């Protein structure tokens, strides 16, 4: 068997924007699309992005699923500037523009060759609906470790903005669609015999009223974070209510879970210092609120193929 270390991380607003030269009218520059000669492309908040890079490096993952990345160019520039060895460390990247109007997408950084990419952003809520099922995408990515293939289904489900109860049905629809996509790819009652993982920011927690049961409690998966003591399962800090909850998940297929008996690692060194439940060391430069890596923690897991 070979071992592949995977991770998921909502890196929180990995944005970049074109900065127009002072003597250029942006209305002219964008008339026919961007004019690169008249602009420069800058990452927002270099201190925060350096700490975000530290958090990714700390996972030491072979394959990293990311959420809230603006574009493929943004990801490549971030990789080159803020991850040690840059493109030599993660030579393979995947991102397809999705449905979010804020331009936040899901993506993959990989040390292993990416052999297949499929988007599901086009799926509609109903055949006649003009609205999409996925808020961003369900990005399906195959990576190869020698002769073996691992399939990732990268998620960033509907947020709870507007209220957990009011947004619950959207997440339930997305969960049902994700399960349908997996069953269509791997088929039958023995879906969990194949090597796949669903991971990302699910934007809900496993308490009464959850929208995630059909996937997290599915007999073909295991939420590996549930292997940790209950008090250690939190992956997200919500400052307004001083809440610590699990919003991020790595769901291994049944066969992968049976073969991969270790515990996951939750990287909390990039959290702001006001997240006082975490008392360990922080990365250099982390502030009381900002700069920080994210309000989410990367989660990593060794998977035996």
Provide key terms for this protein:
Deoxyribonuclease I, Chain A, 22% helix, alpha+beta, 7 helices, globular, 305 residues, six-stranded mixed beta sheet
How does this model look, in words?
Helix content is 22%, strand content 29%. With 305 residues, the chain is an alpha+beta fold. It has a single domain, classed as Deoxyribonuclease I, Chain A (4-Layer Sandwich). The chain has a 6-stranded mixed β-sheet with strand order 5-6-4-1-16-15. It is globular. The mean pLDDT is 93.
Question: What's this, in brief?
Answer:
The protein has helices spanning 26-29, 46-59, 72-82, 86-89, 164-186, 213-216, 254-259; strands spanning 3-14, 16-20, 39-43, 63-69, 92-95, 105-110, 114-118, 139-145, 148-156, 196-201, 221-223, 236-238, 243-245, 248-253, 265-266, 299-304. The chain is an alpha+beta fold and 305 residues long.
């Amino acid at each position: 068997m070979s071992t592949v270390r995977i991770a998921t991380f909502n890196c929180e607003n990995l944005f970049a924007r074109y900065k127009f030269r002072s003597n250029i009218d942006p209305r002219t520059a964008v008339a026919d699309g961007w004019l690169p000669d008249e602009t420069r492309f800058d990452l927002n908040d270099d201190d925060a992005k350096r700490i975000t890079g530290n958090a990714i490096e700390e996972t030491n993952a072979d394959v990293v699923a990311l959420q809230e990345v603006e574009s493929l160019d943004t990801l490549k520039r971030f990789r080159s500037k803020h991850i040690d060895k840059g493109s030599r460390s993660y030579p393979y990247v995947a991102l397809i523009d999705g449905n979010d109007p804020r331009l936040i997408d899901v993506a993959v950084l990989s040390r292993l060759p990416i052999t297949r990419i499929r988007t599901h952003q086009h799926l509609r809520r109903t055949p006649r609906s003009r609205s999409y099922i996925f808020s961003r995408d369900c990005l399906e990515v195959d990576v190869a470790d020698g002769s073996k293939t691992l399939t990732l289904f990268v998620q960033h489900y509907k947020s709870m903005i507007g209220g957990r109860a009011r947004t619950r049905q959207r997440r339930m629809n997305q969960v049902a669609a994700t399960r349908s996509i997996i069953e269509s790819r791997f088929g039958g009652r023995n879906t969990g015999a194949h090597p796949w993982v669903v991971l990302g920011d699910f934007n809900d927690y496993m308490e009464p009223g959850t929208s995630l049961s059909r996937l997290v409690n599915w007999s073909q998966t295991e939420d590996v974070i549930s292997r940790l003591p209950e008090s250690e399962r939190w992956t997200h800090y919500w400052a307004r209510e001083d809440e610590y909850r699990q919003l991020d998940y790595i769901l291994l297929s049944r066969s992968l879970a049976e073969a991969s008996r270790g515990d996951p690692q939750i990287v909390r060194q990039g959290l702001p210092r006001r997240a006082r439940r975490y008392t360990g060391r922080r990365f250099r430069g982390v502030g009381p609120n900002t700069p920080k890596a994210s309000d989410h923690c990367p989660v990593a897991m060794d998977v035996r193929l």
